[in-house]
Specification:
This protein is mainly beta. 11% of the residues lie in helices and 35% in strands. The protein has four helices and 16 strands. The strands form two sheets. Strands 1-2-3-7-6-5 form a six-stranded antiparallel β-barrel. It has a six-stranded antiparallel beta barrel with strand order 9-10-11-16-13-12. A hairpin with a 4-residue loop joins strand 9 and strand 10.
Length: 300
C-alpha cells in the first residue's frame, strides 16, 4: 500500500504494465505527476469474455475522480436521491490523515479534500470538494466514503456526469470487470477469479475480498478505483492492493488466509474489497447510520 510512485513508474518503463500492486501514490508532487501521466487506456475485455458475455457494456472513466495520491469515484446507492449530497468512494489507506489503525473506524469527520472529476475520455471537467469523511476504516475492509458539498443533481446539470451506482448484492465469481483509475486515466479489464476468506497485509486484515485474474495488473495510484461489473455498469468493489514481491503477509505483499488458517501467497495477483454492504448503512439523504437494519460495517 505504500509503494512509492517513482517505483511504479520505473516498473512501467521496464516491464510495460508491470506486476506492481494497487497501492496509493505518495501525496508529495502527485497532482502534477498525474496531470502528465501518459499511460494509455487498457484494451477492453478479451475475445473470450466477449464471446461468453455478448451484452457487456463499455466502461469509461466518466464519474471517476483523481485524488492527490489515489483514485476514486462519485457513487450513489440504489435508494439515493438526485437531491442528496454526492459521495466519493476510495480506499481507507487513501485517507488524507494517514492509514487508520487496525480496529479504528472514523465517522463524520470534517474534511475539505478536493477531487478532480473526469468525463468519459478522462478529461478533468471539475473540482469537487468534500464536506466530511462520512466513513473510513481499514478493518475488515479498506474503504473511505466522503460526503461532498455538491448534490448529484448539481454535478449532473453543471458537468453532465452521473454517479456510479453501488451494487447491493454480493458479486459473482467469473464476472467480467473493469478497474477504472481516475488517477492514471486508465482502465484495466479482467474477471473476478474468486473470493478470499481473509487477506492479511502487515497489521491489517480484510474479509471476503475479491481476487482478480492476472490480466488486471494494477499499479501505484490505482488504489480506490471502482471495480465495475461490465454487464451492469455497477460498482461491486473498490480496488486496494496486490502482492508485489512474493513475500508473505507483509505491506505491499498481502497473503490469502483460508478458514482453516492456511496461507497462500500469489505474487503479481491483485485484490479489491467488496462494497455491497455499504448501501444498507446509508439511509435518508445519504447519511451514515451504522445502526440501520442490515448494516454490518465495522463500528467505532
Amino acid at each position: 500500500m505504500r509503494k512509492p510512485l517513482v517505483a511504479a513508474l520505473f516498473a512501467l518503463a521496464i516491464a510495460g504494465a508491470g506486476a506492481a500492486p494497487a497501492v496509493a501514490a505518495p501525496v508529495t508532487g502527485a497532482p502534477a505527476t498525474a496531470e502528465k501521466a501518459t499511460a494509455q487506456t487498457a484494451t477492453a475485455q478479451t475475445a473470450d469474455a466477449k464471446a461468453a458475455s455478448p451484452k457487456l457494456k463499455a466502461v469509461t472513466l466518466a464519474g471517476t475522480v483523481a485524488l492527490s495520491n489515489c483514485s476514486g469515484s462519485v457513487v450513489r446507492f440504489p435508494n439515493s436521491l438526485d437531491t442528496d449530497p454526492a459521495l466519493v468512494l476510495t480506499n481507507g489507506h487513501c485517507l488524507e490523515t494517514g492509514f487508520p489503525e487496525p480496529g479504528e473506524v472514523i465517522v463524520n469527520q470534517a474534511s475539505s479534500r478536493t477531487f478532480g472529476l473526469l468525463n468519459s475520455s478522462g478529461t478533468r471537467v471539475a473540482t469537487l470538494r468534500a464536506s466530511k469523511i462520512a466513513y473510513s476504516t481499514m478493518t475488515d475492509t479498506d474503504a473511505t466514503i466522503y460526503q461532498l458539498t455538491s448534490t448529484y443533481a448539481t454535478i449532473k446539470s453543471s458537468y453532465g456526469i452521473s454517479p456510479l451506482t453501488v451494487q447491493d448484492t454480493h458479486p459473482t465469481a467469473g464476472t467480467a470487470i473493469t478497474v477504472a483509475s481516475g488517477y492514471w486515466k486508465r482502465l484495466y479489464s479482467c474477471n473476478i477469479d474468486g473470493f478470499v476468506y481473509r487477506i492479511k497485509e502487515g497489521d491489517w486484515t480484510w474479509k471476503d475480498s475479491v481476487r482478480y485474474t492476472s490480466a488486471c495488473q494494477t499499479i501505484g495510484g490505482t488504489s480506490g478505483s471502482p471495480v465495475v461489473d461490465q454487464a451492469t455498469g455497477k460498482v461491486v468493489a473498490v480496488n486496494n492492493t496486490g502482492n508485489e514481491d512474493g513475500e508473505r503477509c507483509t505491506e505491499n505483499n498481502p497473503c490469502e488466509v483460508d478458514a482453516n488458517g492456511n496461507v497462500t501467497v500469489r505474487k503479481g495477483i491483485n485484490y479489491a474489497q467488496e462494497t455491497y454492504g455499504f448501501p444498507a448503512c446509508f439511509t435518508t439523504r445519504n447519511q451514515l447510520n451504522l445502526s440501520a437494519s442490515g448494516c454490518t460495517l465495522p463500528k467505532p
